[in-house]
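thoughts on both lines:
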Amino acid sequence: MRRATKTLKTWRMGAVLAIALSLIALAGPPASDAQEPTFMLYLPLGSRCGFNYPVLWGTVVRVIDGDTITMDVNGDGYEDFHVRYVGVNAPETNECYGREATVFNRQLVEGQRVALEKDYTEGSYGRLLRYVYLSDCRWVNGVLVREGYAKVDIPDDSRDKRYAAQLRTLEEQARWERRGGWGACGW
């Protein structure tokens, strides 16, 4: 009888400990330690930088605007591809918050080594449509939306919807906090 009671107590203690650790993990770091931007929480990756789909690595040669870049994938320093970020639309340079979006995109990716992930569509207008990740695992598409430099742009008939839910969640947060164009332009 004593052994069964002791086993039950041990099991209960283990269960309580597991629940407590789960709650601590869900709560995240204390507010004073929360230096990492919230968009890191919305990476569409199975694990940190563990890509679930094939990626192509290259270096950003030039930023064209808030949602388009040129890439060197051969390592020769020349532009091999024009890449448009799939699922997002930044304002044009002559529109409200367009210059800011371009500058932010330039600061974020120009000269950086990035990974390109295809969804469904190859692209159009001579550009590839891709999800883009920095070498430190930040998801560029999500960063632009979360910080208010771009809006979600996924047409109903689009097949490129792999991360639509994550992008819409990030957009809601940016809208709610009136970040970027949401505050400056009233998108």
